[in-house]
Design goal:
657 residues, alpha+beta, Chloramphenicol Acetyltransferase, 2 domains, 20 helices, 18 strands
């Protein structure tokens, strides 16, 4: 792995003049004329020969020489560790598994035991450095990609701090590899040793231990403080609460066991909600709040596998160690493992006398009770505020788009611009994450999808007079989007570069340059649309919350004949509405199909929609018939297809409120 990582090129540093020119081009149509004129002058002054910009650029040139990746530390702090917002909804994305049909409590424990077996298999691959190297797909395909993110899946932890969190990576040379999982059940935490006497527990043993944990959790006489709620609070609040917890040695021991575990498995009670994609997505993101499963979590761990008694299952991840593609690849491995290797509940000798799993204990002072009440109130507000809508658009999928000789990703991005414009009558700063894994320690940069060309197209779609030019404008918008994507994945986009210049100024202790105090810069980083393509080859979907109070989160999973959209916003904002946004999105996608069919001599649009509705009805019938197999995960595996750009994964809240 190290050989391949070192063989990867370093992240390039774009030229100052190119970045400043692109910045002005990206922002002109999002500003008033007065704002833009002011910004143009500020940018000109910043980029002048011998000016501040050139000095800061020279510092970045020096930094690039010394570091494997010149922007990595700046980016990690800015994107995640400096962010003070609570992790659930605001930062941590979730992967929602297919609805499971558990007929008895033992079925959910069997599912959990099978899942843990898969986790241990995957961990074995990681420990042996035997995970195959990913190669870029889609645009500029075939290049090897940096694999570092995978090796943080089960060995890292986000430690809260008063001003900035710390991403702790466990090094096996310093401390022994963790050999336990934490199981959360009824707001209690249990240590499940997965290696006993140097032997990994088999699935039968894991099930025995999970049954014991379930009984222990149900038989606890005294009320147990839901300590996990503290991790759902704002990061500064949680850091303060953690320092209170640390005063007691009992609490220190419990925290140490959680912080060093491989992952969490959360055995959730039934939520009582009617199961739909939308309700399951919300449950994955926040657990339903303190009255449901919100305290049955520990949000600082990278991987929390959720197994609900009502069949609501998935995984929620702490985003700072890795991008969504790593979450997808791990989740797909696990679900395929569970389909491909039947439950092994009989095979292999068991450990003769399994030691009982250990319940973690907490000493809870009156001060801690107050902090728990405050955290519960905050989570309750967050749960009430989230406006989630998951919609499967089934009129067509990426095959239709490819037949138009268009990039599915660029096409969907333009459709999102159209949806926002129809809802709100303007274009806004948009974030689409682009993978930088072609480079050493590569994470992501931003594809700025709110292009002038996209705005010209969406305006034309609301103007009946411009019918003849609509197709030309659509192709132009898609071409520009594709070019910016290539620019981003080759390290030449502007967001990371501007961040680097800003942070270089801070490190030099100079006064913040005017360009970074200007309204245009604040507007450019207030991402009202936070979007991401997260394609899967297994039947599941990704979701996340908005990154600003007046924004939308829009995650999409394009399949051959349908597209799954997970749209989120906040109820507290009177302007945003996820149902309305989805309605505008569906209408826009239908209008774009009609436009393509009219211009390319395709089938009658209305007839095609009627056919799709018939197919969809048939599809629902066949899908329902799969629910008669209780113990195997109900999963569809599709043949993998290259996504438009490898690893297009959403990056979390930047806290630019």
């Amino acid at each position: 792995l190290k050989y391949i990582a070192q063989a990867l090129p370093k992240l390039p540093l774009p030229s100052l003049s190119e970045t400043l020119d692109t910045y002005l081009r990206c922002m002109k149509h999002l500003l008033t004329e007065e704002q833009f004129n002011k910004t143009q002058n500020i940018v000109k002054q910043f980029g002048a020969p011998g000016g501040v910009g050139e000095l800061l650029q020279s510092k970045l040139v020096e930094r690039r020489e010394k570091k494997a990746n010149w922007v990595y530390d700046y980016w990690l702090n800015d994107m995640y560790l400096n962010n003070r917002l609570a992790l659930p909804v605001n930062s941590s994305p979730a992967m929602v598994f297919p609805q499971q049909n558990f007929k008895a409590p033992i079925d959910s424990l069997r599912f959990a035991a099978h899942l843990i077996s898969g986790v241990l298999e995957y961990k074995t691959l990681l420990d042996a450095r035997a995970l195959p190297v990913d190669y870029a797909r889609g645009q500029l395909s075939g290049k090897p990609l940096c694999m570092e993110q995978y090796y943080r899946l089960f060995t890292s932890y986000r430690l809260p701090g008063p001003d900035r969190d710390t991403l702790v990576a466990q090094e096996s040379s310093v401390m022994p590899e963790p050999e336990h999982i934490i199981v959360a059940c009824k707001n209690q935490f249990f240590v499940l040793d997965v290696v006993i006497n140097f032997r990994r527990l088999n699935e039968k043993d894991l099930l025995t231990q999970l049954e014991r944990i379930s009984k222990m959790a149900s038989s606890e006489d005294e009320p147990v403080p839901p300590i996990g709620l503290l991790t759902s609070d704002g990061r500064t609040e949680w850091a303060e609460a953690r320092s209170v917890l640390m005063r007691e040695s009992t609490n220190r021991d419990s925290l140490d066991m959680i912080e060093r575990c491989l992952c969490l498995v959360c055995l959730d009670d039934a939520s009582g909600s009617e199961q739909s994609d939308t309700t399951r997505a919300a449950m994955m993101l926040h657990g339903g709040g303190p009255s449901k499963n919100g305290g049955n979590r520990w949000y600082d761990k990278p991987m929390q596998f959720i197994v609900g008694a009502d069949g609501c299952c998935g995984v929620v991840c702490e985003h700072s160690p890795f991008e969504g593609i790593v979450l997808v690849q791990c989740s797909e491995y696990l679900l395929k493992y569970m389909i491909g290797s039947p439950s092994k509940l009989v095979r292999a000798a068991s450990v003769s006398e399994l030691p009982a799993p250990r319940r973690l204990r907490w000493k809870c002072s009156p001060e801690m009770q107050k902090l728990l009440t405050s955290s519960a109130d905050e989570l309750h507000r967050l749960v009430k505020n989230l406006d989630m809508n998951v919609h499967t658009f089934s009129d067509y999928g990426k095959e239709f788009i490819k037949k138009q000789k268009m990039s599915p990703d660029a096409y969907i991005q333009v459709a999102l611009q159209l949806a926002y414009y129809r809802c709100h009558g303007r274009a806004v700063s948009t974030y689409e994450s682009a993978s930088m894994r072609r480079f050493q320690q590569g994470r992501v940069d931003n594809i700025r999808s709110a292009t002038p060309e996209a705005l010209a197209f969406v305006r034309a779609m609301t103007d009946r007079k411009l019918t003849s030019r609509k197709m030309e404008l659509l192709r132009c918008a898609i071409n520009v989007q594709t070019k910016y994507t290539v620019m981003a994945i080759t390290g030449m986009a502007i967001d990371n570069h501007l961040l680097g210049l800003r942070e270089a100024a801070r490190e030099m202790k100079m006064e913040k340059p005017e360009i970074f105090k200007d309204d245009a810069y604040l507007i450019s980083n207030h991402f009202i649309l936070s979007t991401s393509q997260v394609p899967t080859t297994v039947e599941m979907f990704c979701c996340y919350g908005p990154v600003v109070p007046d924004g939308y989160g829009a995650c999409y999973n394009p399949q051959s004949d349908h597209i799954i959209f997970s749209v989120s916003s906040f109820h507290e904002n009177p302007q945003t509405c996820s149902v309305k946004f989805v309605k505008c999105l569906v209408q826009g996608l239908q209008d774009m199909m009609d436009l393509c069919n009219r211009c390319n001599g395709g089938p009658d649009p209305a007839e095609q929609r009627r056919n799709n509705e018939t197919t969809e009805t048939k599809g629902k019938t066949s899908q329902d018939s799969t629910k008669s197999q209780p113990t195997n995960p109900q999963v569809l595996v599709k043949s993998p297809e290259p996504s438009f750009t490898e690893a297009r994964t959403r990056t979390s809240a930047k806290g630019k409120f």
